[in-house]
Every structure is written in structure tokens, then in C-alpha cells.
Amino acid sequence: MSSNTLTTNTIAVVAHAAGDLRIEQIELSAPDVDEARIAIAYGGICGSDLHYWSHGAAGESILKAPMILGHEIVGTVIQAAADGTGPAAGTKVAVHPATPNGTGEPYPEDRPNLSPGCTYLGSAARYPHTEGAFAREVNLPARMLRELPEGLSLRDAALAEPAAVAWHAVSRAGDVAGKKALVIGAGPIGALAVAVLKRAGAAEIIAVDMHEKPLAIATQLGATSTLRADDQEAISAVNADVVIEASGNYRGLASAVRGATRGGRVVMVGLLPTGEQPALISIAITRELELVGSFRFNDEIDQVISALADGSLNIAAAVTHEFPVAKSLEAFETAKDSSTSGKVLLEFLSE
């Protein structure tokens, strides 16, 4: 891998259009003064990556030009930022992929994840698109980098970003210690939410999914029991104090409302499709439920990294497959099948 400041070429995973995913050489320019050059080690395939590949869009974010995918990444600094900010060369880092940015519209200053102009690595929300980091080498703003503590490997930190999404969702539920929690959808975010709930002291954690594989993963991560998504009678009988809705499906949201106890809180982290969605609002009203949104995260990634380092957060079981970048298409095909996979990692170290 090159560590000079000149323009160089590197291998990247690029979405060109729906169904058109390519592993190709791209030109990597010299980093800006506030950017470090990172040798990427691992990248987790996110649902948004799958949507760009499968549909050419993720919600209302539509591909208008080829875009490098990927925002769940860890790697090693091979060239520190020239302005002296950020970690030194040789430092292992996780990455916070957001760039908060105001547009004049109001938002809470202590919640930059809600800034209307916020950009995210590997996002087509704006044009020109914000390139992602599924590449052997990338230039990233030093402020995005989070140094890994001694003893925490890149492989063990590979899920820091999605775990931060789950951590933020659980924080939106309030104090869960000693409470009964219901997690609807045991895909990667739901499974990670189970692990975070366990660490936070939830007394009972019930995971719900359509498939046995994600339910088995959720059990490994701390679920005390599981239910099939089609068992609505059992879900309605849960009476959970807090519910994490991670399916991103209106049927999952209906299950979340049915499974919540009177006066309970439902945290909606699964992103439903754009437009109007059916919802059991009458039940939410008569049970005085709190329906709370959860979007990305702020500084929770720092707490995740600390918890991974001290062993209090164990999320290894969430990873079910690992592919070298040369087999990215196979990796995406595997990640798309939630009945047989959890989190799928791309490995960029192999030549």
C-alpha cells in the first residue's frame, strides 16, 4: 500500500446502478491538510449498501452517478493529517462517518445527527454524492477517526459503527435496567441492540424475527427468549416496558405497538420506506405509548469502543461471514439473504 502524498490508485467497491456492483481501480488524490490516509482493514455491509446495489437507491437517496459504497469501516492510519490533527501514522482507528452541517433549518445543537445538512460516507442523499470507504486506501477527515485502545483489534472493532446505531437506539429508550425489552427484527441492528440491552442491565430481552438464523444470533448476544414474527398472539402478550423496532417494516411496527405494555416506550430505529405507512395509532393512544425515533448516532461510538475494549459489550456473534474484497459480489449476495446471514464483513487486507 502506498503511503506517499501523491495521487495513487486503489481498489474500491463501486455501485454504478441497480444490479451493477463493480470492484474497480479508482484514482485516489493527495489528502487535504486536515485528512489522513487510511488503509482499510474491514468494512461491514449495511442495509443501505444493499439498497444501492439492489435498487439504485436507499429510500429517497437515488444514485445519479457511480458511488463508492461503505461507511462501517476500520483501518490503520498510514499518513497522518498534515495539519497535525488526528492520530499518528500506525494508529488503528474506527470511523465516525457523519459530517454534521446546518442548512439554516433549526435542530437541537446537542444532537448533530439531526442537522439537516448532515452528510454520511457512502450516501447518495446529495449530489455530488458523498463517496464511501469500501477501498483499500481512503482519505478521511481526521475528525472522523477514533483511536482504538491497546488490545482492541481491528477485527473486534469492525462493528463499532452499527453498534453505535444500536447504542443510540437503546439510549432513546431511557433507563432499561431491570426492565423487560422486546426487539422486533433480529437483523444486524436488532441483534446489536440485544447486546447493548444486555450490557445496560435489561432483565428480560425477547427477540422477534421471521427466520431462525437471526434468532439464534440474538440468543448468543443475550436474548433470554425468542418469538417468531408470525406469532402475533405471543407478541401481544409480552407487555414489554421498552420495544426496539428494528425491522423497518410497518408490520414490525404493528408488532412493536402490540407488544408494548401500557405506558411503555417504542423506539423506532428500523427505517420504514418513504411515504405514508399504516400504523396502530389507536392502540398507541389508548395505552399512552411513547413512539420515539432513533436516527444514526452522535458520540455513542466512543462508548461502544470503550465497552468493546473492556469486554463489557460482546458482539462477535453478530458477524456470520467474511469475504475478501475480490469477492464483494458474493458477499453482497450473502448479506442480502437475512435467513442465512447476520453481519457480513469485507476484508481489504488481502491482495
Please give a structural write-up.
The structure is a single chain. The model has no long low-confidence stretch (mean pLDDT 95). Helix 2 (160-172) packs across helix 3 (188-199), helix 2 (160-172) crosses helix 8 (300-310) and helix 3 runs parallel beside helix 4. A hairpin with a 2-residue loop joins strand 1 (8-17) and strand 2. The protein has two domains: 8-159 and 315-347, Quinone Oxidoreductase, Chain A, domain 1 (Alpha-Beta Complex); 165-293, 3-Layer(aba) Sandwich (Rossmann fold), CATH 3.40.50.720. By secondary structure, the protein is an alpha/beta fold. Strands 3, 7, 8, 11, 12, 19 and 20 form a seven-stranded mixed beta sheet that branches. The chain has a six-stranded parallel beta sheet with strand order 15-14-13-16-17-18, with helices on both faces. A three-stranded antiparallel beta sheet has the order 2-1-6, with helices on one face. It contains nine helices and 20 strands. It has helices spanning 47-55, 160-172, 188-199, 212-221, 232-236, 250-259, 281-286, 300-310, 328-336; strands at residues 8-17, 20-28, 35-44, 57-58, 61-62, 67-68, 72-79, 92-95, 98-99, 119-120, 137-141, 145-147, 180-184, 204-209, 225-228, 240-245, 260-268, 290-293, 319-324, 343-347.
